[in-house]
Design a protein that fits this description.
The structure is a single chain. By secondary structure, this protein is α/β, with parallel strands linked by helices. The chain has 4 domains: about 200 residues, Alpha-D-Glucose-1,6-Bisphosphate, subunit A, domain 3 (Alpha-D-Glucose-1,6-Bisphosphate, Chain A, domain 3, 3-Layer(aba) Sandwich); about 110 residues, Alpha-D-Glucose-1,6-Bisphosphate, Chain A, domain 3; about 130 residues, Alpha-D-Glucose-1,6-Bisphosphate, subunit A, domain 3 (Alpha-D-Glucose-1,6-Bisphosphate, Chain A, domain 3); about 160 residues, no CATH class. It contains 20 helices and 25 strands. A hairpin with a 2-residue loop joins strand 19 and strand 20. The longest helix is centred in the C-terminal third of the chain and has 19 residues. Keywords: Carbohydrate metabolism, Cytoplasm, Glucose metabolism, Isomerase, Magnesium, Metal-binding, Phosphoprotein. One of its GO terms (molecular function) is phosphopentomutase activity. InterPro entries: A-D-PHexomutase_a/b/a-I, A-D-PHexomutase_a/b/a-I/II/III, A-D-PHexomutase_a/b/a-II, A-D-PHexomutase_a/b/a-III, A-D-PHexomutase_C, A-D-PHexomutase_C_sf, A-D-PHexomutase_CS, Alpha-D-phosphohexomutase_SF. One of its GO terms (biological process) is purine ribonucleoside salvage.
């Protein structure tokens, strides 16, 4: 009998046979007693999926949520898979850390118990940890894998289970599907223990030594000791109620910089995140308290990490008293420049460096690479792809993994941490601000000078909320198939006409967005990529191009389970629309570029493109997207 055919009350009994947590047991028992089948179906029918991001969901009872049962099951499957695929895995061990969220410590203790029961050495990072400490420790110790219990910047009711492979980077296929299969095959709870990590002989307690090593490795990021010693800049820091404050304080001290001024109401860990709607420095208004504190203290920089300190955000006070909040792409550009001048200060030529960013991030990094000569690649979204790409380039070409970033304020700038790291990113940004201050300029001035050198790139990235998966799929079907799709309305713009022979469907993507012709299309949901559309004899409603299997296939991994389509336009525009793997969002990433003396035109074109995405592609008003 398949999972979908099991009667719901049988799933209730199955759950209760596993669960030893009184709180979650009671939730399921109460729903059973009320015969609330609808809610039981939501919690029990579809197991939480293990993917390249590990696990992440709301904390409550049920196979589809984050709780003690699903954490134990994930740990069982992961431990078995690692033993099958890594030599001497038990002796190499696993690194386990956790943040301050509700249940994080318990989840980490349960994970440790499972790995101990499987014969693993466990490097248990007791107490609160930042996420970057886990990948650093995996690499430092040559461990078999790592687990970090965190939901990063998600709302307070969420938690997650993040997995690193033995190279220190997050897992990618085929490991994700292999682990998921092992989890599925090992559902029965074999151990439920939150105490063994305290006394078991296979537990290694060396957190302080690993923290010391983390900060020692960060010393390689110092640009100019004398400038740091003479620094005049003052800055305010907010931990966003997370775990970053002591780590950010120590890195400033380690590198010889003055201490930050804390946002007192946000600097201590608090799993309820009382002063922010979403504990994410990207969100509009998230830095308001920090800016107010900076105004009061006479500081000119605002620095922020997200709750697990793997992301970094910044704002700078300008001469007119206003605050300029840097976008994720702008910070990426500035930190890439820092990586360049840091290498130059060590006499490392640019052609020995490798830098990557995600495909939804700015192409300004690619422009920098063409000017400066470093190796550049773009990847799918997520540091799992970027970090592994840097590892591949290092292993195959011998280049230094100098920098990686994604527009969602994630930055890798220490090659010893193969994941985003908000602590080292903050330290490098402060040094860059000091570097510019010594020249009588600020970092916004530097950004303007980089636009003059590499081109003016401007973006508009945000999202719509939609909880209806059927509606989301219909929106993307309309973009992909146009009015030829039976459930969709006629279109107001011309479309391509590719007959996809292996599916028997005609792809009818827009030929124009924001008043400019489409020149490039990539669809990573169905597996289609075509360049230089303007040079093909296309593409109106009465002309058809047959596409055979494998023809126009993308270089990136195709994932039918998620939606992602990219367009480029003749006026240097780029649009990517995708669904989120962890949140009910349709995300869009829009960028326009041109020469620095065309700023007004570029801004106008960006506005037209953004309006067209909401109006024409997503039909946001008609579809009631928030």
């Amino acid at each position: 009998m398949s999972e979908s055919q099991i009667p719901i009350m049988d799933l209730v009994e199955k759950w209760l046979s596993y669960d030893k947590d009184p709180k979650t047991r009671k939730q399921i028992e109460d729903l059973r007693d009320k015969n609330d089948v609808e809610q039981l179906e939501k919690l029990l029918r579809n197991p939480i999926e293990f993917g390249t991001a590990g696990l992440r969901s709301t904390m409550e009872a049920g196979f589809s949520r984050m709780n003690n049962v699903t954490v134990i099951q994930a740990s069982q499957g992961l431990a078995i898979y690692v033993k099958k695929n890594i030599d001497s895995a038990e002796n190499k061990g696993v690194v386990i850390g956790h943040d301050h969220r509700h249940n994080s410590e318990t989840f980490a203790q349960l994970a440790a118990a499972v790995f101990l029961s499987q014969g693993f050495k466990v490097y248990y990072l007791g107490g609160l940890s930042i996420t970057p400490l886990v990948p650093f420790s995996v690499k430092k110790l040559a461990a078999a894998c790592g687990v970090m219990v965190t939901a990063s910047h998600n709302p307070k009711d969420d938690n997650g289970y993040k997995v690193y492979w033995d190279n220190g980077a997050q897992i990618i296929p085929p490991h994700d599907t292999g682990i998921a299969q092992c989890i599925k095959e090992n559902q029965t709870i074999t151990i439920w223990d939150t105490e063994s990590y305290k006394t078991h002989s296979n537990v290694v307690n060396m957190k302080e030594e690993l923290i010391d090593a983390y900060f020692e490795s960060a010393k390689s990021l110092v640009l100019d000791k004398q400038s740091i010693a003479d620094m005049k800049i003052n800055y305010v820091y907010t931990a966003m109620h997370g775990v970053g404050a002591p780590y950010c304080s120590r890195i400033l001290q380690t590198l010889g910089m003055k201490p930050y001024i804390p946002v007192e109401s946000q600097v201590e860990p608090d799993p309820d995140f009382p002063t922010v709607s979403f504990p994410n420095p990207e969100e509009k208004g998230a830095l308001d308290m920090a800016k107010a504190a900076a105004d009061k203290a006479g500081a000119t920089l605002v620095l922020a990490s997200d709750p697990d300190a793997d992301r970094f955000a910044a704002a700078e006070k300008q001469a007119d008293g206003s605050w300029y909040v840097f976008s994720g792409d702008q910070l990426g550009t500035l930190l890439a420049y820092y990586a360049l001048i840091l290498a130059k200060s060590k006499d490392i030529p640019a052609d020995k460096l490798a830098m990557v960013n995600s495909t939804v991030s700015s192409r300004m990094l690619e422009s920098m690479a063409k000017h400066e000569g470093f190796r550049y690649e773009d990847t799918l979204t997520g540091f799992k792809w970027m970090s592994n790409e840097l590892v591949n380039i290092r292993n195959n070409e011998g280049l230094i993994p100098a920098f990686a970033y994604e527009e969602a304020i994630g930055y890798l700038i220490n090659p010893e941490v193969l994941d985003k790291d908000g602590v080292t990113a903050m330290a490098c940004f402060v040094q860059l601000a000091v570097h510019m201050d010594n020249k009588g300029l600020n970092t916004k001035d530097l950004l303007e000078s980089l636009y003059s050198k590499y081109g003016y790139f401007v973006s508009d990235n945000y999202y719509y909320i939609c909880y209806d998966n059927d509606k989301i799929n219909a929106i993307f079907d309309r973009i992909r198939y146009g009015s030829s799709h039976p459930s969709l309305q006629a279109d107001l713009f011309p479309r391509t006409n590719f007959f996809y022979t292996d599916s028997g469907k005609t792809l009818r993507y827009p030929m124009e967005i924001g008043g400019s012709p489409v020149t490039y299309i990539r669809d990573l949901t169905i597996g289609f990529e075509v360049e230089q559309l303007d040079s093909l004899t296309l593409a109106s409603n009465n002309q058809q191009i047959n596409v055979s299997p494998g023809q126009y296939y993308p270089k990136f991994l195709v994932s039918p389970e998620s939606q992602m389509i990219t367009f480029e336009t003749a006026n240097n525009g780029r649009v990517t629309i995708r669904t989120s793997g962890t949140e009910p969002k349709i995300k869009y990433y829009i960028e326009m570029n041109g020469s620095n003396d065309e700023k007004n035109l570029v801004q106008e074109n960006l506005k037209a493109l953004a309006e067209s995405v909401g109006r024409d592609l997503l039909e946001a008003t008609k579809n009631e997207l928030v």
